[in-house]
Amino acid sequence: MPFENPDSTPEIKPLLQPVTSTSGFAPLKIALFRDRWIASTVSSVGTWMQDTAATWLMTTLTASPLLIALMQAAASLPVLFFGLLAGATADIFDRRRLLIFWQAWMLATVAVLAVLTFLGHISPWALLSFTFLMNVGSAMNNPAWQAIVPELVPRELIPDTVSLNSASNNLARAVGPALGGLMVAAFKGVDKGAGSVFLLNALSFAGVIWVLVNWKRIPLFKSVLPSERIAGSIRSGLRYVRYSPSLQSSLIRAFTFTFFVSAVWSLLAVVANRDLHQGAMGYGILNGSLGLGAVIAATVLGKVRRRFGASRMIAVATAYMALTLLVMARVRSPGVIIAVLMAAGFAWTSTMATLNTSVQLAVPAWVQARALGTYLMTFQGGLALGSITWGFVAEHSSTPVALVAAAVGLMVTLPVVHRFKILEGPLPDHTPYQWTRPAPQLAGDSDVTAGPVRVSVEYVVKAENYVSFTKAIHELRGVRLRDGAIRWGIYRDAVDPERLNETFLMESWLDYLRSRERVTAEDAAIRDRVYAMNEGNERPKVSYQIYAREVAG
Question: Any idea where the Major facilitator superfamily (MFS) profile domain is (predicted)?
């Protein structure tokens, strides 16, 4: 690999860039983002109306707490099943066309559900099935939807953009459930009210499709190489996650938090119906209280994060969510629970927006959708598995026991996960590295898909630099493996200890070329620190070998 000026280290920008506006609303001045935000908000209102109507419809179709809790699982499991596939397709195919297809999928699925509900041909399992199918579309849509954020706003506005997206979703959460409950209550039959909500939600997807159809997309990263196949794209995404400690920290925090807090969402309808003796409208108000608190959080989140830091803010939010679970288990006053849920919405959004931001800023453009797909899979996996767990406990014990158990689990795991830090220290510079040396050329009769390929780098390192070199080279190991290497090693000459050999394998020459495209300014800085320790500050000798297969004859 060519050596590029070891004395030139790219500037690493701090996490919180100074921007012209500190209000948090600066991204809305960008027309394209503003149109997307408005269309998304309208669609999210319809989705939350459907969530409330469908969950309440399930309470009239069955008395089983487990089946009611499975509504949350049906909304979450598709992301668990398809998160990696969704991220891979969003990094391979044109995101605009992909988004249009999946928005149309959700429109069609909800429209069919509306018709079946109007006709009275709906059962608990049919409702679960269509909820699952709609959320298959949502699961396949979301990584691409979130990955286009850097294409719409400057990078320094991404934290504010994520907060505004959370505000959109939670404004919908505040308004949608109440509207959904009101619309269901307005009809004599729950099926007619729910069917009307489903039809309205189907129409809400049309606005998003219209914005996407009129979007003239300019991708941030476009490879000149042939596209990866889906299986290879998934493998490279998983490899990146495996060798990215900062991304792993975000995923661990997301899963732990959502697994226990899922009890709030999955059992709220049961608490409203059985413990508080509320109808559909009452349940909608309780659900909307969470959304109202979340909207408040989204408007002040930037200031709170700057003042207290991400880890401290998440720790406080976690403790408060545990308190919320205990209040839901023991208190029977709707007024008290509404007040507590509003603050819980604040805590929920503060945590999830911070975790989402940490993922957005932790990865370069070439793997962004796959990282977001993995994050969404982890996030929804925690919700789905938690919903099943707490629904099962409530079914075989009681709802208060399930809520108390979730609260205890949340507090017990807090000291363990708190050591996984996020959004601390300088932010890596993921600007694509600009190569000044062309890639090595294969011999004329060689196939770019042939492999595996071994890249060998020869170093001469003085004895006094050996400790510093080995520390730096093992940091470079993570770069090589994240960018596509399937195996890596560093070896010291047994006869001449000052000679070392770094060897890493690529699946093919094409994968090696892709790894060059994936190098960021931060990766190059790490590599340059290693190369600078080569004796004489000369470029280490690099050689490339393709596996020699036996040829018949």
Answer: 24-421
